[in-house]
Design goal:
Distance between the termini: 19 Å
Number of strands: 18
Low-confidence stretches: 194-198
Shape: globular
Structural class: alpha+beta
Number of helices: 9
Mean pLDDT: 89
Strand content: 15-25%
Helix content: 25-40%
């Protein structure tokens, strides 16, 4: 369980074994151990329904059967951690264990030996409160307090610090992307007007609160680079919509807040471009992307309305940020208030910096190889322009390919070999205003009547959807 019955969202495995070189090995990331999560880089919709996915079928979007498909493909990222950082992850488990079981772990004092020859500098970050853990007395300096409750929000701080120190580019993959609600000026005004007109429920009259700083810090970093006349680029990969029926009230409201976040960022970038007399477009600096798959159902699949177009989004469940090909943050938390607050969902992550012996950064090492591997999978290959992610040439190539793949994804004719990377189906004006893509009839996701930009429900308290 988690704080106030919100999820305990930590996906970790810790192995304490004398045969392991560093004493403790931990595995941490977005992959939770349940059905419907197994997948590979092919992300098949139908070809594996009678084999690897026969007993691991997951189709919450169209609610199809294993006989008809499509299954919902799944993209996720996990990491292996050794050394002292692995011991910190074990300490996290110990504090949770003490809270739930109220007894010390057997043989807890197993020593983790630091690998002094490693080029990696690793920091463990958390979102966790005393409602789900018994904090070690030696960690009190890391804790915050509010309303008499101690909590740790180092994960949010880790994201913000990495963004503020970004020099060239940021690449993010996240299941959700919502935050910095104090900057949603127009959306809050529209929301208040809607509530006054349609709703008398007291829970709806509270202003939506998603005050994590990640989206606004990204926008301000872009604005600072515009002011300094330096190139900078941000790529954010998200799913079409949260897992489930996109018509449902809670998913539509989450999309509504996501659109508010996007528009806030784009309007700030547009204002900076105007202020400094630049002719560039906001998308020259900031782009939202998604993944999709097309596949012919084949002769062995029951034909139905659910599978006749042979397409599905690939669900982004990964939680990763790469900065300047030098720093990678991998964990369990999405970019929303629940994950970053510290007093709500319980989360954990590792920030990894690869450095030379003199602590100067390595920008052509394993972090860059990690990004290149991801982009090669998503784009179906690696373009020369991708070598410098902050360059305008790279941004233009990403937009060009993403729009090309989106057009192939939405057409009736099935092209099986199109790469997975798509532009997110929104259009951005020069002043930063967000509308649904002109390619989407009625502003709906392909094959649905679900609104891409979302809708305010007037039913759910915003705390549940932020």
């Amino acid at each position: 369980m988690g704080t106030e019955n919100l999820p305990f969202n930590v996906f970790i495995v810790v192995v304490d074994d004398d045969d392991v070189a560093e004493g403790v090995t931990a595995y941490i990331g977005g992959l939770d151990l349940t059905t419907g999560r197994y997948d590979d880089q092919n992300h098949y919709l139908f070809k594996t329904l009678e084999t690897s996915h026969f007993n691991d079928f997951h189709s919450p979007v169209v609610n199809s059967t294993v006989g008809e498909g499509p299954r919902l493909p799944w993209h996720d990222i996990h990491s292996r951690v050794t050394g002292f950082a692995a011991k910190d992850i074990l300490q996290n488990f110990r504090e949770r264990w003490l809270y739930d079981v109220n007894e010390e772990l057997a043989d807890y004092k197993t020593k983790a030996r630091d690998n002094t020859e490693s080029k990696w500098k690793v920091q463990v970050y958390r979102s966790i409160s005393e409602d789900s853990a018994v904090f070690d007395d030696g960690r009190s300096s890391y804790l915050l307090a509010k309303h008499g409750r101690s909590y740790e929000a180092s994960l949010h701080k880790g994201y913000v610090n990495a963004i503020r120190n970004a020099d060239r580019f940021i690449y993010i993959e996240s299941q959700f992307f919502m935050g910095s609600s104090h900057e949603w000026v127009q959306r809050l005004r529209d929301c208040k007007d809607w509530i006054v007109e349609h709703c008398s429920c007291s829970c709806c009259h509270a202003a939506p609160k998603a005050d994590n700083l990640i989206p606004i810090e990204i926008a301000r970093q872009i604005c600072d680079k515009i002011s300094d006349n330096e190139r900078f680029a941000v790529y954010i990969l998200i799913p079409f919509h949260p897992d489930g029926d996109p018509h449902s009230v809670h998913i539509q409201e989450m999309l509504y807040w996501q659109t508010a976040t996007m528009e806030m960022m784009y309007t700030q970038v547009a204002a900076a471009l105007k202020q400094h007399g630049r002719s560039a477009h906001p998308r020259d600096y900031l782009n939202f992307l998604c993944l999709g798959r097309r596949e012919n159902p084949g002769d062995g699949v029951e034909k139905s309305e659910k599978n006749k177009f042979g397409r599905s989004m690939i669900y982004i469940h990964s939680k990763v940020m790469i900065v300047d090909d030098e720093y990678a943050l991998v964990g369990t938390s999405n970019i929303n208030q629940r994950g970053m607050d510290g007093r709500r969902d319980t989360e954990i992550a590792v920030g990894c910096w690869e450095a030379q012996p003199d602590d100067t950064p390595i920008n052509c090492g394993h972090v860059q190889a990690f990004r290149k591997a991801l982009w090669s999978e998503h784009f179906g290959g690696y373009e020369d322009d991708f070598a410098i992610p902050e360059s305008l040439a790279c941004v233009k190539k990403v937009i060009e390919l993403g729009e090309k793949h989106w057009n192939s994804y939405t057409q009736d004719r099935i092209e099986e070999d199109i790469p997975h990377l798509l532009t997110y189906p929104i259009d951005i004006s020069r002043d930063g205003h967000v509308t649904y893509s002109a390619t989407c009839s009625g502003g709906h996701f392909p094959g649905t009547k679900a609104h891409i930009l979302g809708r305010k429900s007037g039913i759910l308290p915003s705390r549940l959807t932020l």
